[in-house]
Amino acid sequence: MSKLPRIVSCTAVCLAALVPAARADCPDCVVVAVDLDPSRPGFQTTLAVPPGTTRIEGVAIWIYDPNETAVIRSIGYVGGVNRGISFGHVPDAGNVGIVSALTGATVAPVVAGHNAFLNNGVEVMFAGPEVQYFESGAAGVIPASPSAPVMRVDIELRSAVQGDTFRFHLGDMTATWLDAGDVFAGGAFSTSGVDTLDAGGDAVPDGTDSLFGVDSDVPVPSPPAPFQVDYIDSLAGGGAVITVTAAAVPALSTWALLAMTAAMLSAGAIVIPSRADRDGLWPTDLHHSVEDVAGDNRFSLL
Ligand SMILES: [Ca+2]
Ligand SMILES: [Ca+2]
Ligand SMILES: [Ca+2]
Prior knowledge:
single chain, mainly beta, Immunoglobulin-like, 2 domains, 8-stranded mixed sheet, 17 strands, binds calcium ion
């Protein structure tokens, strides 16, 4: 299937067209991606917020298959101790502020009709707060251009000050669990039945900083895995990063400066001598020296 017509024709949300679906290192990977900023088109993996920010709402996790060929029955290990796709925070010692909580909500399952649920990690993948995603149901194709993310996450900050940076990573906790010298490799995606766990892990290592080491969610080899998965929390590595920066002072245009000056003149805030000081003495009528004669916001020296 050609990707270009799909990209051009997607109507609901063209986010999938704007993420690195065609990245050369894994063009056919199923993608799990993070979008830190729901207010802007495309996927943002960096976000600047002002000091004192306490809540960042709507961070989205998207799952799509650029080829729209991957068929799944479930995501995550849906068992006694669930382990799924994790979005979590990795604290840095140099910060003053902290990420105090992540609160997730499911939006739309990858496959319509699937049951989806979240938890905050029965077995956690990251040192800070995290949310893990699961779904299961009948066999269905992962769409190329989903109209909604699988989940949204609100991030709670406490005492955030300028200079703080908060890192977030995506990872496959199922793959991390099954790679720990276990009986077989596996990942969060199941194609042959619920909990077959026959695909997943991160096929493109990117420095995922987990409690079990860097890039602990090794991919299920393909074959036998029917497809590979690329978890993308940033393109350069280091995760998705929220930076606390001082609020930018907007630059004033020349016209804005002129308008502001005119307003100040009109209000008498600025007084301009009405006559040249030819005799070394300032005139006495300094006030009322500038007037909007025609009432058209154009000021004349009188
Ligand atoms: Ca966005
Ligand atoms: Ca990774
Ligand atoms: Ca990756």
